[in-house]
Specification:
About 35% of the residues lie in helices and about 20% in strands. The protein has about 950 residues and is α/β, with parallel strands linked by helices. The strands form six sheets. Strands 1-2-3-4-5-6-8-7 form an eight-stranded mixed β-sheet, sandwiched between helices. Strands 11-12-10-9-13-14-15 form a seven-stranded mixed β-sheet, with helices on both faces. Strands 17-16-19-18-20-21-22 form a seven-stranded mixed β-sheet, with helices on both faces. The protein is flat and about 105 Å long. About 45% of the residues are buried.
Length: about 950
C-alpha cells in the first residue's frame, strides 16, 4: 500500500479548495500513514452522523475498519480526505462494484460512494467539494456512475447528491434511498460548480476586505517601519472594528494609541485579519501563531520571497502551503495592502502615503505597490474615489481572479480596474472577466510581456496585439498605460455608456476642436463637424450648445473643449455648473471635457452634484509628512454622501488635459457598449452529430501511452488525418513520390489532374520558390514537371515530393490552434502567404469559439474583402470556413492533449473548401484544468 512518498501515490489528486464560508481546506488521497488521523476524526463525529454513515450505532472504528479505510489501490478503491491543519474534517471513498453490487475490478464502470463530515464543519460545503474531486478521480479511473445508499432522514447528504447537477436516478429500497449519479459533466453540473466557486471565492475575499478585527504583527516600538505605517493607516482611516498591535518586545499596553500584545494568542479575542510585517525568516512563526488563534486571512507585507530569487521562491511556496494548511487565505507576500472604503468597514491596511481614498464606485487591483501608489494618487487628483483596493504583490494566493469573483457581486463596485503583470489561469480569467463585463466594465492594463520576478505563472508567447484581441473578445477593455486606465475608469464610473460611435464636439477653441475631431477619426469613431462657440462664449452659451447636442438624434456622446477666458474672473465654477445643468436637462448620453490649463474646472466637475457642500474643511487626518496629496477641501465629495448613497451616472463629468486622452476614453466606452449590446446574441457552440469524441479520446490515449509527461509528439500524416477526421475535418490525400515512376502511380490512384509539390521544410508552403506544379493533366506532363523540379531545386530525397489531386481554385487561408501558456487555447485565422506571414494580418479567438465568434473572426482581418468578392471576384464559401473553425475549436476544447494544429493551406472555393495539409502536436494535458473540480492554483 502507498504512502505520500511512494511513487504510486497519486500526488496530482492533491488540491486546495475554497469552502462555502471562504475558508480553505486541502483535499488529498488517504494513505496508510493516516490511521491515527482517521481514528481522531471519527471520535469527533457525533453519534447521529455515525448512524447515518453506517445505518446502525457505530461508536468506534475497529482495527479492521481502520485498515480498510486507509489502504487503497487508488484504482478500484480510493479514499480522499479534506484536511485543515493536517487533521481530517471530512472523508469520502469509493469502491468499484459489479452488476451484483459486490466489489469488482475493471472493466466495471460503477462504484459505491460514501461520505462522512465532522459535525463542526457541516454546512461549509465540504461534502460538495469532496464529491467534485472524487468524481474527477473516478472518471480518471474509468468509472462512469456512482451508487449511494442514504437513510431518508439524512437530508443533508441527499441534498449534496441532488444539488450536484449530474444526471441521476432515485429510488426507495429496503428503507433507504438508492441514488445513482452519472459522472459525465453536464451543463447543469458545470453551472452548479461555477456558482459554488464564485460564492466561495467571493466570500474568501470579503473576509479579507471586511474584517471585524485586525492585528498588525511587527509594529516597532519606535513608530518606524512598515508595521508601524500600516498600523497608523488603519487607525487613522477610522476602522470600524477592533484593532490590535503585536510585538514580542512590547512593554506597554498601548502603541500609537492601539492596544498592544506580545503575541497574537495573548489577544484573548477573535482576530479576523492579520497584517504581517516581520522579516521573512520570522513569517512562518507568525503564520503558525495566526493559524493556532483561528485568524481567517493574512496580508503579508514582508519582502524576501519570489522577487528575490530561487531561494525566495521556495520560501514563498512554503508560505502558501503553511497558510492554506490552516484554512486561511493570503494576500502577498511583498504586498502593498488592502483598502475598503465601505462606511461600515473603513479599512486601510496598506502602506499608501496618501490619505484614505474617498468613497467611490471603482474597484482597483494591482500586482505592484509602486503602480498602486501612482493609481491611488491619480484618482485622488482627479477627485475620484474607490470602493476597494487590493495590491497583491507576488500574489502567491489571492489573485485578480479572486477579486473579480468578489467585485462581480459587490454592489459598491461599478467599474473594475486591474493592473496585471500575468494572467495566472488565463482560461479562468477570461471566463470570469466575460461574466463580470456583462454586468460592469473591466479595464485592464498589462505591465509586461514576460513573467516578472516573484510570479511563478507563465507569460504569453502571443504578440501584444493578439492578447488585446483575445481580451476584447471576453469583454475586457485593454489599455496600454496606467494613465489610460485612470482615464477610461473615470469616464465609465461617472457617465452612461454611449449608444454608438457618433461624437459631437463643441467648445470655445476651433483648433482644439479640430484636434479632437482628428483623434476621433484615428479611433474609428464617427465625429460630427466641431461646433466652434468662439472664445467669447459664456457658460450660458456652453449650456445651450451642450443641451442641444445631447437632445440631437445625430450623436451618441459629446466632447466639450474649453480654453481659459481672456478676462479677470475665473469662471470655472460657472462653466461646471452650466455643463452640469445641460446634462441634467438632457440625461442619457456620456459627456467628457477637454480643458487647457483649467485645473479648477477639473475639481468642480468631479464634485458630486446635489451633495451638501461642507461649510468648512474637514480636519486633516494624521498622516506621514511626505504624503503628497490631500483631498481638496470645500467641495462636495463622494465620501461626504450619506452611507449607502449610490452616485448616479452623469452626476460627475470627467475632464482631460488633452483631446486624445478624452477621445481614447470615449472610444473604449463605445467599443465596450457595442460588446455589451452584442451579448444578446453571443452565439452558441454547435453540436455536430458526426463528431466521434470517444474515438478521438481513445486514439489520443493510445498515441500517448508510452510518451513521458512533458514530451510533445508530432503526429504522422495518417495519424493526424485520422484524428482530424473524427471531428469531420477532411484532409486531402497526399501520396509520396520519391521517384518519377512513384509519382505516376500516385496520379493513377488519385486521378488527373494532379499537383506535384515539394515538402522539404525549407520549401514547404513556398510556392514562390517554384516547388509546386499545378494542373498536371497527364503522365508526360507529370514526368516533365518532376524532372524540372529535380534539376532546379535538388534531388528527390532532398525535396520529398508528393502528389495530390487538384481541388477547385479559391482563396488560400491558414487555420491554426495553439495552447498558449499565458492565454490558454487560441484559434487563429488568416490568409496564406504574405498577408499573415509578412504583414501579421491574423485574427484570434479564445476556445471554445461560438458561431458568432468565428463569423467575426474571418471578417476581422484586414484582407477579409478577398473572401467576399473584392473587385468583382467570386465570393467564397465562408459558411464552410466557419464550420471548419468551429470543428477545430471543438477538437481542441474537448481534448486538451491536442496542443497545436496547423491547417495550411485551406483553399476556400466558391462552394466548399479543401484542407491540403495538416500538422498536429499532442502531449499529456495538465492534471487539472478549468473544467475540472474546483481547486486553488498550486504555484
Amino acid at each position: 500500500m502507498t504512502t505520500e512518498s511512494d511513487p504510486a501515490y497519486p500526488a496530482h489528486w492533491e488540491a486546495d479548495v475554497v469552502l462555502r464560508d471562504g475558508g480553505t481546506a486541502r483535499i488529498r488521497p488517504i494513505t496508510t500513514e493516516d490511521a491515527a488521523r482517521l481514528v481522531s476524526f471519527y471520535e469527533q463525529v457525533s453519534d447521529e452522523s455515525k448512524y447515518y454513515r453506517f445505518f446502525a450505532p457505530y461508536p468506534r472504528l475497529s482495527d479492521r475498519d481502520v485498515h480498510r479505510f486507509t489502504h487503497h489501490d487508488y484504482v478500484d478503491r480510493v479514499g480522499l480526505a479534506a484536511t485543515i491543519g493536517g487533521e481530517f474534517i471530512g472523508t469520502v471513498r469509493y469502491d468499484r462494484i459489479g452488476a451484483d453490487g459486490r466489489s469488482a475490478t475493471g472493466p466495471s464502470d460503477e462504484a459505491e460512494v460514501a461520505f462522512l463530515v465532522q459535525d463542526a464543519h457541516q454546512g461549509r460545503g465540504v461534502a460538495s467539494a469532496l464529491l467534485e474531486h472524487i468524481g474527477a478521480v473516478a472518471r480518471e479511473r474509468g468509472i462512469r456512475r456512482f451508487a449511494a445508499e442514504v437513510l431518508p432522514a439524512n437530508t443533508k447528504m441527499i441534498k449534496v447528491f441532488t444539488d450536484a447537477g449530474y444526471e441521476q436516478k432515485r429510488s426507495f429500497e429496503d428503507g433507504s434511498v438508492h441514488l445513482t449519479l452519472g459522472l459525465e459533466p453536464t451543463a447543469e453540473s458545470l453551472a452548479v460548480q461555477r456558482a459554488r466557486e464564485q460564492r466561495a471565492e467571493a466570500r474568501s475575499v470579503q473576509r479579507l476586505l471586511a474584517p471585524g478585527s485586525v492585528a498588525v504583527i511587527g509594529v516597532s516600538r519606535s513608530g518606524a517601519g512598515v508595521g508601524a505605517a500600516a498600523l497608523r493607516n488603519l487607525r487613522d482611516s477610522g476602522f470600524r472594528g477592533h484593532l490590535y498591535a503585536v510585538n514580542e518586545a512590547v512593554t506597554r499596553d498601548l502603541v500609537d494609541g492601539v492596544r498592544a500584545y506580545r503575541t497574537v494568542g495573548a489577544i484573548g479575542a477573535p482576530v479576523d485579519l492579520a497584517v504581517i510585517a516581520v522579516p521573512a525568516d520570522r513569517v512562518p512563526e507568525a503564520v503558525a501563531a495566526c493559524g493556532d488563534h483561528g485568524v481567517q486571512g493574512l496580508v503579508v507585507l514582508s519582502a524576501g520571497y519570489g522577487e528575490s530569487g530561487p531561494a525566495g521562491l521556495a520560501r514563498q511556496r512554503e508560505l502558501v502551503r503553511q497558510v492554506r494548511s490552516y484554512g486561511m487565505r493570503l494576500i502577498g507576500p511583498n504586498a502593498f495592502g488592502v483598502i475598503n472604503t465601505a462606511p461600515e468597514v473603513e479599512l486601510n491596511a496598506s502602506l499608501t502615503p496618501a490619505p484614505m481614498p474617498m468613497r467611490g464606485r471603482i474597484g482597483l487591483f494591482t500586482q505592484s505597490g509602486a503602480i498602486g501608489i501612482a493609481l491611488l494618487s491619480a484618482l485622488l487628483r482627479r477627485g475620484e474615489g474607490l470602493s476597494s483596493f487590493v495590491s497583491a504583490g507576488n500574489r502567491a494566493d489571492v489573485s485578480g481572479n479572486d477579486i473579480l469573483q468578489y467585485w462581480y457581486e459587490d454592489d459598491s463596485t461599478d467599474v473594475a480596474l486591474l493592473y496585471l503583470e500575468t494572467l495566472g489561469n488565463p482560461r479562468k480569467f477570461t471566463r470570469l472577466a466575460r461574466r463580470t463585463a456583462a454586468e460592469k466594465p473591466v479595464v485592464v492594463v498589462r505591465g509586461g510581456r514576460h513573467t516578472p520576478a516573484g510570479h511563478v505563472v507563465p507569460g504569453t508567447r502571443l504578440p501584444d496585439a493578439t492578447v488585446s484581441a483575445l481580451l476584447r473578445q471576453a469583454g475586457v477593455i485593454r489599455v496600454d498605460t496606467v494613465t489610460e486606465l485612470v482615464d477610461v475608469g473615470l469616464l465609465l464610473a461617472a457617465q452612461p455608456l454611449p449608444a454608438g460611435p457618433r461624437i459631437a464636439i463643441l467648445g470655445n477653441s476651433e483648433s482644439l476642436g479640430v484636434l479632437t475631431y482628428d483623434a476621433c477619426l484615428a479611433q474609428d469613431l464617427r465625429p460630427l463637424p466641431p461646433l466652434d462657440l468662439t472664445t467669447a462664449a459664456s457658460p450660458a452659451d456652453f449650456r445651450t450648445a451642450l443641451a442641444a447636442a445631447l437632445a440631437s438624434d445625430d450623436c451618441d456622446a459629446v466632447i466639450v473643449t474649453a480654453i481659459p477666458w481672456v478676462s479677470e474672473h475665473a469662471p470655472a465654477d460657472d462653466l461646471a455648473g452650466a455643463l452640469r445643468d445641460a446634462v441634467a436637462e438632457v440625461p442619457g448620453k456620456p459627456v467628457a471635457v477637454v480643458h487647457v490649463e483649467l485645473g479648477e474646472l477639473v475639481e468642480a466637475l468631479s464634485a458630486v452634484r446635489g451633495a451638501p457642500r461642507p461649510s468648512a474643511p474637514a480636519p486633516p487626518r494624521e498622516e506621514p509628512a511626505a504624503a503628497p496629496f490631500r483631498p481638496p477641501a470645500g467641495r462636495a465629495r463622494a465620501e461626504e454622501l450619506p452611507a449607502g448613497t449610490r452616485i448616479p451616472a452623469g452626476t460627475r463629468i470627467p475632464a482631460y488635459p488633452a483631446g486624445e486622452r478624452a477621445v481614447k476614453a470615449v472610444a473604449e466606452a463605445v467599443r465596450y457598449g457595442q460588446w455589451r449590446r452584442g451579448l444578446a446574441d453571443s452565439g452558441s457552440v454547435p453540436g455536430y452529430e458526426d463528431i466521434d469524441e470517444a474515438g478521438a479520446a481513445d486514439q489520443l490515449a493510445g498515441l500517448l501511452a508510452d510518451t513521458a509527461a512533458g514530451t510533445v509528439l508530432t503526429l504522422g500524416e495518417w495519424e493526424a488525418r485520422e484524428l482530424l477526421g473524427r471531428y469531420g475535418i477532411r484532409v486531402l490525400t497526399t501520396l509520396p513520390a520519391p521517384s518519377a515512376d512513384a509519382a505516376v502511380r500516385a496520379a493513377a490512384i488519385l486521378g488527373y489532374p494532379v499537383a506535384l509539390k515539394t515538402t522539404a521544410p525549407h520549401l514547404r508552403h513556398r510556392a514562390d520558390l517554384g516547388g509546386v506544379r499545378l494542373d498536371l493533366t497527364g503522365e508526360a506532363e507529370l514526368r516533365r514537371s518532376y524532372e524540372e523540379l529535380s534539376q532546379a531545386l535538388g534531388k528527390p530525397a532532398e525535396l520529398q515530393p508528393v502528389v495530390q489531386a487538384m481541388v477547385p481554385r479559391g482563396v488560400d487561408t491558414v487555420v491554426r490552434s495553439v495552447i498558449d501558456p499565458g492565454a490558454g487555447a487560441v484559434l487563429s485565422f488568416g490568409l496564406a502567404g504574405v498577408p499573415s506571414e509578412l504583414l501579421g494580418d491574423t485574427a484570434h479567438r479564445l476556445v471554445p469559439a461560438t458561431d458568432r465568434d468565428v463569423a467575426t473572426l474571418i471578417r476581422s482581418i484586414r484582407a477579409a474583402p478577398l473572401l467576399f468578392g473584392w473587385r468583382g471576384s467570386s465570393p467564397v464559401d465562408t459558411a464552410a470556413l466557419e464550420e471548419l473553425l468551429l470543428r477545430l475549436s471543438r477538437l481542441v476544447d474537448d481534448h486538451p492533449e491536442v496542443i497545436g494544429v496547423s491547417l495550411e493551406p485551406v483553399v476556400v472555393a466558391a462552394e466548399g473548401l479543401s484542407v491540403l495539409s495538416a500538422a498536429v502536436r499532442v502531449a499529456h494535458p495538465p492534471a487539472r484544468g478549468d473544467l475540472g473540480p474546483r481547486t486553488l492554483p498550486s504555484y
